[in-house]
Automatic annotation (TrEMBL):
Organism this protein belongs to: Mucilaginibacter phyllosphaerae
Subunit structure: Homodimer.
GO biological process: nucleobase-containing small molecule metabolic process; pyrimidine-containing compound metabolic process
PANTHER family linked: CYTIDINE DEAMINASE
GO cellular component: cytosol
Family according to the record: Belongs to the cytidine and deoxycytidylate deaminase family.
Keyword terms of this UniProt record: Hydrolase
Superkingdom field: Bacteria
Enzyme Commission (EC) number: 3.5.4.5
Record domain CMP/dCMP-type deaminase: where: 21-164
Gene3D superfamilies (alphabetical): Cytidine Deaminase, domain 2
Protein name: Cytidine deaminase
Molecular function GO terms recorded: cytidine deaminase activity; zinc ion binding
Length: 164
């Protein structure tokens, strides 16, 4: 028997103003992205902004549906848009934020397991780290240097991608 330990490291900034200018700007883009959220059921708006290597920014938000499982998280709306139209332009960083009028958010929201899986595969596809900024508007920002460290057990089978 062999026991393994996995360590996950991330940086916590008390407020967004502690970030460098580019990261602050990307967090602001995630806030802007919430404006297009379609969340009449949860009233929980989520915005995501992708900073691409070319400088382009992709905005996305959560999109709900009256048939609940038909909705999709902001992260995956953003990443599938990237995959469909900008996959040759690597994602440098991704900022995610949220807001609801129902209760205060005191710490950053974290992505669901399905989004982490998609984030991990996008990182693999582009063959470079995808930084993640989880931004609490009135609280801290968590910065993770790559998705691999957030999803060490991501499902990935090389033989499904490249014939052996
Ligand atoms: Zn999700």
């Amino acid at each position: 028997m062999t026991e393994h330990d996995i360590k996950i490291s991330f940086k916590e900034y008390d407020t967004v103003t502690e970030l460098n200018t580019a990261d602050q700007a990307l967090c602001a883009e995630a806030v802007k992205a919430m404006a297009t959220s379609h969340s009449p059921y949860s009233k929980f708006r989520v915005g995501a902004a992708l900073q691409l290597q070319s400088g382009k920014i992709i905005h996305a938000s959560n999109q709900e549906n009256v048939a609940y499982p038909s909705g999709l998280c902001a992260e995956r709306v953003a990443l599938f848009h990237w995959g469909a139209s900008h996959a040759n332009d690597p994602i440098v960083s991704m900022a995610v934020t949220a807001h609801t009028d129902d209760f205060p958010l005191l710490k950053p929201i974290t992505s669901c397991g399905s989004c982490l899986q998609v984030m991990a595969e996008c990182e693999k596809r582009q063959n470079m780290p995808l930084r993640v900024l989880l931004y609490c508007i009135d609280g801290p920002v968590w910065v993770i240097d790559d998705v691999k460290s957030m999803m060490p057990f991501m499902f990935f089978e090389e033989r499904l991608v490249q014939p052996v």
